[in-house]
Design goal:
Elements: H1 3-24, H2 27-60, E1 64-65, E2 72-73, H3 75-109, H4 112-129, H5 135-170, H6 176-192, H7 206-218, H8 220-274
Helix pairs in contact: 1-4, 2-3, 2-5, 2-6, 3-5, 3-8, 4-5, 5-8, 6-8
């Protein structure tokens, strides 16, 4: 037996002991699950706000503003944002699904069955290292070990790293809590800004009609302000939604895809190690 094989065998043994100890401790799993639960609560809350906003828009779209000589349907102003909100709801549902799947994986890898299985596979991998031949068996065991190690450690680490990146590099520009509050405020403003078309009474006298005509002309500024408010709310809401889409896609889809690629690379290396 060569000194090189003895050296690498000793290194692998030390790493295996560290992995077994880390596997037995559930601290990293609890931290990962805590972060996933927090993200899941955020996503569900924002999904609820988006559905409430969609409902308000659906109601307000039928409202008409009637400046002197004109009739403007609010739906003409809010139709683009209505489409955006509907798509946003689907995106948030996708993000919630992604977080739910991550939570399921956390629950699986923190269970006793998975912990003891991984421990046994690591021990078997160390034993097989010292045997010559058995290449097919080694390849199967090493691939299984790599896969189980990935599921055990990389998913919680991914979640922790994701939270770290968001907290220190993303939150300053894309604060989820602040954007959720802003979206809620926009929903309330949209509801408060709704205007019911004034009913016309054709039985009014000449003097009363003249007075109302003058009043309509004076109130033209009021109607312009209402239209401006709707446009401002629509623009602000679009900005909040786009920012939320960016940050949630990054947190729930981009990061997991990166680590799935890492899984592929890890299993590939395990296969080469066994050959």
């Amino acid at each position: 037996m060569s000194n090189k094989k003895l050296f690498f065998g000793f290194i692998i043994l030390i790493i295996s002991v560290i992995l077994i100890v880390a596997n037995s401790s559930k601290d990293i799993d609890k931290k990962g699950e805590e972060l996933i639960n927090h993200s899941l609560q955020e996503a569900v809350a924002i999904y609820a706000v988006s559905k409430a906003l969609n409902g308000v828009i659906s109601v307000v779209q039928g409202t008409e503003i009637s400046p002197p000589g004109l009739t403007i349907t609010i739906g003409e102003i809010l139709d683009p944002i209505n489409d955006l909100v509907e798509r946003f709801s689907w995106i948030m549902l996708l993000c919630i699904t992604s977080l739910g799947i991550q939570k399921i994986f956390i629950n699986i890898v923190s269970g006793d069955i998975f912990v003891y299985t991984l421990m046994a596979v690591v021990v078997v991998s160390n034993i097989l290292y010292w045997f010559d031949g058995l290449n097919k068996t080694k390849t199967t065991v090493y691939k299984t070990t790599a896969l189980l190690l990935f599921l055990k450690f990389v998913i919680p680490i991914m979640t922790i790293a994701n939270g770290y990146v968001y907290e220190y590099y993303i939150k300053q520009n894309y604060d989820i809590q602040k954007m959720k509050e802003s979206l809620t405020i926009s929903t309330q403003e949209l509801q408060n800004n709704s205007v019911v078309k004034k009913e016309q009474n054709n039985n009014k006298g000449f003097l009363e009609k003249l007075t109302n005509k003058i009043s309509d002309i004076v109130s033209l500024k009021f109607y312009k302000q209402k239209i401006k408010n709707y446009k401002t709310i629509a623009n602000n809401t679009s900005e909040y939604i786009i920012n939320l889409v960016i940050v949630f896609i990054f947190k729930t889809i981009v990061f997991p895809l990166i680590f799935i690629y890492m899984l592929y690379r890890l299993v590939s290396k395990g296969s080469r190690l066994g050959s």
